[in-house]
Design a protein that fits this description.
Strand content: 35-45%
Largest sheet: 5 strands, mixed
CATH class: Alpha Beta
CATH architecture: 2-Layer Sandwich
Number of helices: 2
Strand order of the largest sheet: 2-5-4-6-7
CATH topology: 60s Ribosomal Protein L30, Chain: A
Number of strands: 9
Radius of gyration: 14 Å
Number of domains: 1
Structural class: alpha+beta
Order of helices and strands: EEEEEHEHEEE
Distance between the termini: 25 Å
Shape: globular
Length: 140
């Protein structure tokens, strides 16, 4: 397999998804500040996504594009990570809203798994890169 170098940048008020099989290496986002980046990884399809500062409807659509049609897998289909926030009331409420939407979409099916949250007062990078192969997050 040839080396994959291409990356897509996710700006504020934006969402983007890519598949490892599309020959795109990663998604990046910069200068999070008080924004919360929601990073999603579907290990079955090797698809990743990053969403920042988007509407509730856009977020629901974003999550649905990342879910597999095969709901019989032996592990959660979608792994979610949160990065960002500044400890403000805005950041806290944004995280709560995101979790409510995820619970609504999951609907007790255990297809969505929140696996980490580097937010608010926890140390977190301002700019991140997420790889499409394994959903790994690194600071840039």
């Amino acid at each position: 397999m040839k080396s994959i170098k291409k990356e897509l940048r996710v700006e504020r008020y934006h969402k983007e998804t890519v598949s490892f099989y599309d020959h795109l290496g990663a998604l990046t986002t910069y200068n999070l500040g008080k924004d919360i980046a929601v990073i999603c990884f579907n290990p079955a399809t090797k698809t990743i996504g990053i969403a920042r500062a988007i509407s509730r409807k856009e977020f629901k659509d974003f999550i649905s594009t990342l879910l597999s049609s095969d709901n019989i897998l032996p592990y959660p289909i979608l792994q979610i990570k949160f990065v960002g926030g500044d400890g403000s009331e805005y950041s806290r409420k944004k995280i709560e809203e995101i979790i409510r939407i995820l619970l609504e979409i999951d609907n007790d099916k255990d297809i969505i798994n929140i696996i980490s949250s580097d937010t608010n007062f926890k140390p977190h990078p301002e700019s991140i890169r997420v790889t499409a192969f394994d959903g790994e997050i690194s600071e840039i």
